[in-house]
Amino acid sequence: MSEVGGGGGEVLGPPWSATVRRGVDGALVVGGVDVRRLARTHGTPVYVLDEVDLRARARGLRTTLEAAFAPVGAEVDVYYAAKAFLCVAVARWVHSEGLAVDTATGGELGVALFAGVPAGRIGLHGNNKSDDEIARALDAGVGRIVIDAADEVDRIADAVALRQRGPVDVMVRVTTGVHAGGHEYISTSHEDQKFGLSVVADPAVGGGRAALDSPAVAVMRAVLARPELRLLGIHSHIGSQILDPGGFVAALGKVLAVRAALATTTGVLVDEVDLGGGFGIAYLPGDVALDFERIAKDLAAAAGDTAAALGTPLPRFSFEPGRAIVGPAGLTLYEVGTVKPVRLADGSVRTYVSVDGGMSDNIRPALYQADYHAVLASRPGAAETVPARVVGKHCESGDIVVRDVQLPADIRRGDLLAVAATGAYGRSMASSYNLVPRPGVVAVAEGASRELVRRETDADLLALDLG
Ligand code: LLP
Known about the structure:
Elements: E1 21-22, E2 28-30, E3 33-34, H1 35-42, E4 46-50, H2 51-69, E5 76-81, H3 88-96, E6 100-103, H4 106-114, E7 122-124, H5 131-140, E8 144-147, H6 151-162, E9 168-175, E10 197-198, H7 215-224, E11 229-235, H8 246-266, E12 272-274, H9 292-310, E13 316-319, H10 323-326, E14 330-343, E15 349-355, H11 364-368, E16 374-376, E17 385-391, E18 400-408, E19 416-420, E20 441-445, E21 448-453, H12 458-463
Parallel strand pairs: 4-20, 5-6, 5-13, 6-7, 7-8, 8-9, 9-10, 9-11, 11-12, 12-13, 15-17
Antiparallel strand pairs: 1-2, 2-3, 4-14, 14-15, 14-19, 16-19, 17-18, 20-21
This protein binds ligand LLP.
């Protein structure tokens, strides 16, 4: 049996990362490393990140957006959204590919800084920033803080004053009323949710004149009134796992209109517009990911037309993709345990394949009814397939990893199973439910693997328990 990972077949293609293929004897190979070797070296379950793929996506997004906006004369900056998954190595990779890093908590900020990302290339978000998080961001000298609520204006400005610093760049996060995203919990710009400030006029304010009487513009004016702050721009993030490009274009138009209105009344035309992240990816074979080239060109064209119609020069643009960079670059490798045929009410049989992880390493199926794709990874398996459900080892029936998938009929205990596209919001949302230690994260590239985040152990869990 060869495990060198050389030779072998064609790459599998989406939803797998770019280097995933079947090796000569039919086992999966990722980054040139046979999954059996990964399991032996690092154990299972394990998150596997394809470094070449991740870097290519980061670089590709940046260059695609830059190229699309160049003809209309606008510069572009891409922030990697750390919440999708951050560790020191990933922070370094995205930084070396020319991306900045978007953080939403002190924890994410701390990892980005520790990794050596220059503070000026880090942004801080958060709908409930603590005083400590604001202080850490200011002391580090982050490039921008995104204001999410009215009281943050004075809280941040006072903290700047205390430090006797020059003005700090801030953006104001707005909600445009555009609904988008794969699930209600991850669409973030409709009215009845906690993020941002509405650009829709508040009837309780003034005469209700369009955007100028909106909570968003009120906060922008408050920023302009504080000399410790510089209003760098307007931020709009409309949701996550968005596959329909229309929402981005609609939000862009609204943000540019607010920017122009603010300029008319205050004389201040802000430099930057951030359109957030949310670019959708393929999770299942046949899924079509958002076409970046298309959306980048559409956005650039719409930006050019809208700015011309409004009579304002274009701002620079920034984006904050997380999932689109790290999601497809990751897979999770599990070992199969119990295999149980279950007779369904209609008389058919579903094969329940239990793996050695579950909702603690991927909460997305339970939380968002997210669908994933899996294959038998350690061998080709029988040609005949059976309808299967991949489940975890946790004590609830909602502990589903892959709801519906055809797997080889001879799948059995000891096989390795790979689940595609788990790089985003897998490890970053992992828990140690049932006191199952969280898996480690391993990078693969050019035939070698290296642990980026150590697997948690029972001892780690006990170390927090003070008895
Ligand atoms: N920027 C802001 C301000 C955000 O709130 C988010 C995601 C992003 C950027 C990155 O979005 P992405 O490009 O990754 O879609 N846990 C959910 C996703 C929550 C997204 C929250 N905000 C999931 O597993 O689907």
